[in-house]
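Quick question: what would this complex look like in 3D?
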Amino acid sequence: MGLEITILVIGLNHKTAPVEIREKLVFKNSPLHPLEKLKKEVSSFKEGLFLSTCNRVEFYFILEQNQKNRFLTDFFSFIENESSFKWKDLEPHFYFLENEKAIKHLFEVACGLDSLVIGEPQILGQVKSAYKEALNYRTSGIVLNRLLHKCFSVAKKVRTETGIGGGAISISYAAYRLAKKILGSLKDKTVLLVGAGEMAELACMHFVSEGVRKVLIANRTLSKAVELAEKFRGEAYSLDELLNALIKADIVISSTGAPNCIITKNMVASVLKPRKYKPLFVIDIAVPRNVEPEVNTLENVYLYDIDDLKFVVEKNLKAREKEATRAKTIIETEVFKFQKWLKELEFYPTLRALSEKAEKLRQKELAKTFKKLKNLSEEEKEAIEILTRSLIQKLLYYPINFIKKSYHEEGKYAISLIRQIYELDEPFKELSDEDLNILSCETDKEVSSDSQSDSSKNFNSKKILIQ
Amino acid sequence: MADLFFFLSFCIYLISWIGFIFYFKTLKKEALKYAQLVLLVGFCFHTLFWILKIYQIFTTSLLSFKLLLNFLSWELVFIYFLFTISPIKIYTSGFFLLPLVLIFFLLSFFFPQEVFSPFRPHFKSFWFPLHALTGLISHGFLLFGATTSLMYILQEREIKKKHLGLFFKKLPPLEYLDRVNEKCLYLGFIFLSFAMISGAIWSELAFGNYWRWSPKEIITLILWLIYAVLIHQRILIGWRGKKAAYMFLLGFSIWLISFFVINLFSKGFHTYGS
């Protein structure tokens, strides 16, 4: 019979389990990889994959259908041993998904739809390395290989066809994107940090990694500014020299703990002329704010405070959620395609058995014929060879087509019917002449009916003639 | 033959614009590639059309107003490619520019044939084609600058008001748009100056005086002054961005008056009015 397999996902993620449980199940401490252990202790699965990230722990298994119950009990005891939790306590946190749902789940995970931050790109890399490990421990077979490759192509498709990865979703990245929109290339630009705190440093990182030309640091205590300036190879200023620094800067990141505004509208207005009205992008991530909101009204000066940036991020997240529904329709069709392939996998062995049997019969008959006809030239032999082959191909077309077509309506019935008709599950046996007698009777009947119809045709034509 | 090329290039430009709309919507690189490729094919046909036309103009000595419009659309596409190969990447400008190109095409198609320049013998001088050509080139840069200025204003408004919407996502950075404006400003000014100088010399040769205060001359002078002020302010004070973009749009509206109203409805030796 065909392959009857189940695709099973057993896992937990940030939505179903708190971190106390997730951290116990990452299997980081043990020297053996969980797949290796599973192979030793729970042998009743055909293929397996283990995916562990900070937000999820998931096992993917391919099982034979009748092995499922045995496998589950084995697996539960394996988890109990590994995690020091009782299975009863763990069970409510786990989700079990089978077949269609399991495939859909994997696709959604790989596309980042199931992630804490929708559409984050790291998860695809994590799935890839999980697959590599499965290959390493030889727990991946025909079904998982196909499933994972499909999953990578779906993730790529979703990424290019929807905006799931679009828009900045962290404050510092949103600020960076805005700066690029205003200033174009950042390669020849200067960043001014006002306040040498950790926040400013973090926010500055994006700009530095993108290769801004220079970093200026202005701080109340000069020594700290100098310290940070050394780190970024920049210049240090005290707050009294802020005006000078403002003249040189293109991007200002302000995050001091000052209770009032350090950068006022008048200050910025006074540097506009010496700056020759070059665009200035001011990012104020301090609370309370460090920059007067009216600064935004000045020409070619753009001020974004922390709430503005948060608003941008939230809007992007909403846009991603909207894109997620589009991604889901793509996933849906791909799941359908994969299931179709699985079904083909189920009837594939029958097709192979059928054509193998036909080939065996053909070879035997050919051998017989060639024994009798000894004086055949090579060309003639080849012609007979081709004749028999095409005869078999054409005869086999009907049963194969029957299986492929009627599969969805009549289910496994078609396969078992074909297997019975062609005796595929019985040992191969030569057909004797007596066996073939049935055939000759039937053909006689057919011939007679044919001749009947012939005569009736003649009769009809005579009638026509008379008329 | 020329009509065929005319028709072909119009259709191909239209297809290319559809490609640019698609690029504007999706920002897919392939869409841009194909839109540009199609545009290039259309441009080749358009160039062939002009080669045939120039021959015709020289043999018949007739220059109709509708051809000027057509030349402007050819020039805009040419300038688009000029900026495409320059390091400043402002690809989405095709989306805004091609409607202008297509409108000029349609206008040049529907304009009555009768409106043409009074080609008297003294037009056959070296200075006249120079005058016309440099004038048209300066118009091209003005129109292109006006397009990018419009893009600048649309995007700048979104950033300033903190409503990051459609244009913020699709348009090139403000800085790039401003740099294109700057280039268009300088080039437009240079060619306009050339046009005025060559026009004055030709006027002296043909009529005996350099400057005749016709409406066309006056409005061109105003345009030239706007350019001059803009360049002066830009270099010395640093007028850029929004202010420069609005000035460009002002220049564009003055050009509209000069090109369509004065050219067609005022009477004078310079214009097409009857």
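Answer marked as accepted. Chain B is about 80% helix and 0% strand.
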